[in-house]
Here is the input.
Amino acid sequence: MGTPFLQIRGLKKSFGSRTVLDGVDLTVERGSITTIMGKSGIGKSVLLKCIADIYQPDAGEILIEGKPGRGAKCHAEGVPRMSYLFQGNALFDSMTAMDNVALPLVETTRTRPRAAREQVLALFQQLDLGNVADQYPNQMSGGMQKRVALARALISQPQLILFDEPTTGLDPQRKNSVFTMIADFQRKFDFTAVIVSHDIPEVLFISDQVDWMDAGKIRFVGHPTDLEQVRDPALLDFVYHRNELLSELAGQKGRTALFADWSDLQRSYDYFVVASCATERRRPGAELGLRRFVSYREAVAAVAAISRQHSDVYFLDERHFGFAIAGASPEAVQEEAEGLLRAVSDGSNLRNITRYHWGARAYKLPDVANPSALWTLEENAEILANTQILPK
Amino acid sequence: MEPLKPSAPDRLGPTAADDVVASEPTCRNPIERLGEFSIRSVNELGDFSVFIAKSLCALIGLRASLTKISRAVFELGVRCVPIIVTVGCFTGLIIGLQGYRTLARFGSESALGSTVALALVNGLAPVLAALMVVGQSGSALAAELGIQRNSEQIDAIETMGINPLGYLIAPRLVASLVAFPIHTALFDVVGIIGGYFSGVLLLGQQSGVYWQNVFDALKPDNVGGGLVKSLIFGFGVTAICAFEGYNTHRRSTEAGARGVSQSTTRAVVYSSIAVLALDYLITSVQH
Here is the structure.
């Protein structure tokens, strides 16, 4: 295994007599999205600010590709550079969006102002920000400001972007939109992302790795699906409190409940799959007659109408969708899964699926380069075709 | 790689209040408190000196420095012109009025022109102009930097690889060296004209006598001394206001808007005291 992109060992930071970071160890792989969770005031933002060289750690080391480096200075030493997306965006309120985004180019590179302007406009096009170039931050909505801040973070083509609670103060739709945007641009620009967020479960759908911070240390590291198996009461309380509450209020099934139900299905069927995905479409499954926050019974009934096999469906919110299918043969299950995914995405293909992973205990994934990365449409199809469905 | 060595207390803390709590003296003995205060004052003076030195060093390699300095001269200079003209005019009127009555007791009304000119050029003009600029631009500078600090804009500049001292502070320090002498010269001219209004137009002194006295009194030493004062005042007050605003998170006992308010108040008070103290020192040296 190669050198991790970012490695933190024994990082300590105190403010006066208050110890905030008490020996943090963290490893982040290149091209991954890592989420750091934890209660408010636990030191997540301080950790990011130590990486960004805004705070000076008291002890410990921060390595980027095996070499010591922190903040923007590491660029000068030949180590890849980083950007920081602040919780409050930190846009300069006396500058237009254009000037805000062009600032790093104009001040740190030899780019001429006209060339910088062209680069910024090109990026604005990619981020759907075509009409805000001459607007000041106070003339934009919160979501728009977030996009401009992201544009400023992206303009210098960093290899690492630190996101400090990128969805603070946004409504649920905008939160999803920001997470989708991060996932999409991470794939497009191929940067490594470290996100500090409380937004569970939304952020888990785009994360490749989850780190849970408590009492100044990282106390859990794993894939988001590994959270299903945790036994730490504090972590369980943190992760599932909101998730289960949301599911209960909306009449949906949480992932934990869905997996629990599989004990029944396993007794009846030889083959099954559990999958979940986040789509860029709103209201996935609308063509099946499903409404937003559809009740569990309605969802099952609607999917069963098109399903030949036993199906189970759950929704986390209007962009996140999950399902479980069981059947008598692997082919039948696979065909069903493909059909359902196509129906959910847009009725014809999987283009809009940004995340798609198999969570079934009876599945063996084929060897893929990066099993937890976001897969493209073609990769999805290939992985689906090569997935080995194990007998019960 | 060697682990990072324990560092000195950070420039930044989670909140300004945390830093203050951490640095609060635990002793109650008056002598110890005096010692604590002295050490803290020396530390602050050291921080201030380092702040100025780093800001000036940051000028080297600053992109488009002329543009930034020009913009700072415009912001610092043009914004203050109305108040300089207003205060200069009234100061001249008052000196003309008071001076004429005082000189009349000794039958020396003819010396009014030189009295007004000398009082303004080497004394009042640099001080009053500096105080007006402190109130107008210095407070605005401290508040602007304080808000930028609180809204993480300064941190954002750092994370982009831009030196915030070079980008935000250095151009303003250089601009003060350009703008303050101009302000002082403007104050001188307007003040002398004000003296002419009260002495000649209101109280009836002969115009030729007034202007002859003004020209006789204005020697290069006097004018130069006033401009040197304005250079020192300008640099000093801009540095103090910038220092207070830039370090609002560290130097205020409260966070947020109240912290900025404290920084701005401190910036104005310290700058005003500094102007008067420096005026005394420079005048002592000049004479």
Q: What stands out?
A: The interface with chain B takes residues 9-10, 15-18, 20, 41, 46, 49, 52-61, 63, 68, 71-73, 75-76, 81-84, 86-88, 90-93, 103-104, 106-108, 152, 156 of chain A (CB under 8 Å). The first helix of chain A runs from residue 44 to 51. The mean pLDDT of chain A is 71. DSSP finds ten helices and 16 strands in chain A.
